Amino acid sequence: xxxxxxxxxxxxxxxxxxxxxxxxxxxxxxxxxxxxxxxxxxxxxxxxxxxxxxxxxxxxxxxxxxxxxxxxxxxxxxxxxxxxxxxxxxxxxxxxxxxxxxxxxxxxxxxxxxxxxxxxxxxxxxxxxxxxxxxxxxxxxxxxxxxxxxxxxxxxxxxxxxxxxxxxxxxxxxxxxxxxxxxxxxxxxxxxxxxxxxxxxxxxxxxxxxxxxxxxxxxxxxxxxxxxxxxxxxxxxxxxxxxxxxxxxxxxxxxxxxxxxxxxxxxxxxxxxxxxxxxxxxxxxxxxxxxxxxxxxxxxxxxxxxxxxxxxxxxxxxxxxxxxxxxxxxxxxxxxxxxxxxxxxxxxxxxxxxxxxxxxxxxxxxxxxxxxxxx
Length: 375
Ligand code: HEM
Ligand code: HEM
Prior knowledge:
The chain is α+β, with helices and mostly antiparallel strands.
């Protein structure tokens, strides 16, 4: 299993940190609940000492985890996720990270304030963070308790979100975080009852046709206008990918409805559709067709094909990142990449629109589309 993350999946180090911390946080709740029921005495001291050592371990792992995260890229969220869901996921993840620090630190402060210095498994002693004080203890205790249960609550919502990704959206978000691609999915299927049976039954065929459109992805363009980067998107397009039995691509066809372009300004949009630019009435669709593919790396291909805009067709190589979902589900692909083209090469710019002074010649087209087996 590769150590580092890629844009499509987590590497083994990130997975190790995630799941080790999950197990240790569960351990913390178990130990705290056991300690709560014990009368004051040696046994309670021993259980709480274990709770503190494990808590400090979580603090250390969370620190290393964030350092590793900063030194790595993180997988992109599925393009099809609505903006509010992406925001929700970011907020929840940030909150989880923050709580992984604040909860153990509050525990450590609470112990110091009570003059119970903390030892890490009897191996070394940690410095006291604050001087003994009943008021500080009470405050740290309340913070520790409240935020520990907040952590538990957010983690449960986070678990439900992961299950929704897997069973409702049927994307790769859960699978790409699981340590052993196959085993836990089976366990999860058992956990969720019959919900995933269709998934398992539909597995195997790798040959076939996968499709995607604006509902499952984005197709954007960026150009320079008056010295500023300006973006737009196409609201209607279709992608059809044919794959061979070994899962490699054999044909790709993309059509884009030109009149669906949207730059968030009606006047500019109608100028773009006009005869001097795209001439959408006469040339309503742009297309890309490819039947030759070169494997660039694991899961990455170059599609050698023809891009047609207006009445101009040119050879274009599109970099494709095709990610088959691991774990034996029906084949799913992510088609993502970017190219830079010159609008004037395609005749997009006649009359005064030929000038590149105010509207640059270079246009960057970016796409990210999730493909699912055609029904
Ligand atoms: C992520 C890590 C941690 C989690 C999730 C966690 C969670 C909890 C929970 C749920 C309780 C029971 C709360 C209550 O009802 O009073 C508790 C109690 C306690 N925790 Fe933690 N804890 C963590 C880390 C730590 C650390 C690092 C320390 C100290 C170094 C610590 C010290 C204590 C102590 C002393 C108690 C007992 C408080 C009492 O006297 O009632 N905890 N913890
Ligand atoms: C104490 C419990 C948990 C904590 C503190 C926690 C924390 C986190 C954090 C902070 C991230 C964001 C990673 C990053 O962007 O660097 C994450 C991702 C993730 N977690 Fe958890 N998690 C917990 C439990 C779970 C459970 C029980 C599941 C599922 C069964 C789960 C599934 C996932 C998945 C699938 C991702 C990856 C999301 C993606 O690829 O965008 N987590 N977790």
